[in-house]
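Example record used in the benchmark description.
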Amino acid sequence: MTYNQAVQYLFDSAPMFQNVGAAAYKEGLGGTLALDEHFGHPHRSYRTIHVGGTNGKGSVCHTLAAILQAQGYRVGLYTSPHLVDFRERIRVNGKMISKKRVIEFVEDLKASLLEGRLEGGYSFFELATALAFKYFEEQKVDFAVIEVGLGGRLDCTNIITPILSVITNISFDHVQFLGDTLPKIASEKAGIIKPGIPVCIGENINPEVKAVFQNKADEVGAPITFAEESPLQFPFWGSDFKPALTGLCQEKNTRTILTSVRLLRESGIEISEKAIERGFAEVCTMTGLMGRWQILSKKPLTICDTAHNVGGLQYIFRHLASIPHQRLHLVIGMVSDKDVNTVLTLVPKDAICYFTQASVNRAMPAEELTRRAKAIGMQGATYTDVASAYDTALSNASADDIIYIGGSTFVVADLLAYLNTKH
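Model output (structure tokens):
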């Protein structure tokens, strides 16, 4: 079996949410618990940090992992979705899991199913999570930073008992699964709050949402800290220090990360200020993070970002407006299960739009996105793939323009895959 065959087996045997959406969603922890039993409860052999929320999870996970790595710990990192290669999801000290180990896992899985040691019916994410947890045990990590896949309460990562839970923020996303109000969504996210385990809440959306978290923490006896009410206590912050991740949304992520680090230090984990500074400064190179306000070139300024809902994109468009430029070229595509109409109302009115679609089944057809945009007075051309939209924007842009590519994680994924073929 080749690596591509192994990954395709996972994709085909258990549909991947990023490709098909709701059809791949499996509610409940039964499958995860069965896999956990089969593999010997590997997550119990190392300390975990559990990170949920609507936006900012990836940035927070990667930066916390980088800080712990900078301190000298061996750190596992499990995130989703991947952009170019499945192995991006599972890393140890920034290095992706080997192709050989993925193949071995799939071959063992097939044999276990054939011999009746495992029953079938697992989702793609259940299998990926089982692989990650087992791999981290094999690699003898000190810590593993685990990103929630979807929601929290019923997410299959929620079998762990972490040393710290982090909830970045709450915004409208996946409402078909998590609820159509912010308190309902918050209640699902609050499901990762565990008895007696400290929890850091990154952003107070409103009093109702704050109350959901406070009530859950009180119910299970979990010490709760709201990052927005927690003073920053690190002397380098506010000086000429330049973190690798920039953008308006990173200001809130930074406070969440620093508060989380303070809670880890207070629990007895050694983390120096030098490690904190290095983690912030070198997170992209240390952990392989891509697609977060990623600057691809400076003339013209070309940026891609995986923000894909109203909560994330409102920060993106505000930041773009704050950068001096002649014209804004916006290569945008979205998936059909997002609040597309509201996002379109956020787009700067003077943007030159290139409406496109990613190569996943969930992608809204570019023609439909164009139709919705023109219905509210927007103008732009239609492109059936990200590469042609990007190339056209690049050919139209002058040195003082901005090109932004986003609207969907999968638009960024297609862009980075395309750029990889050109290098």
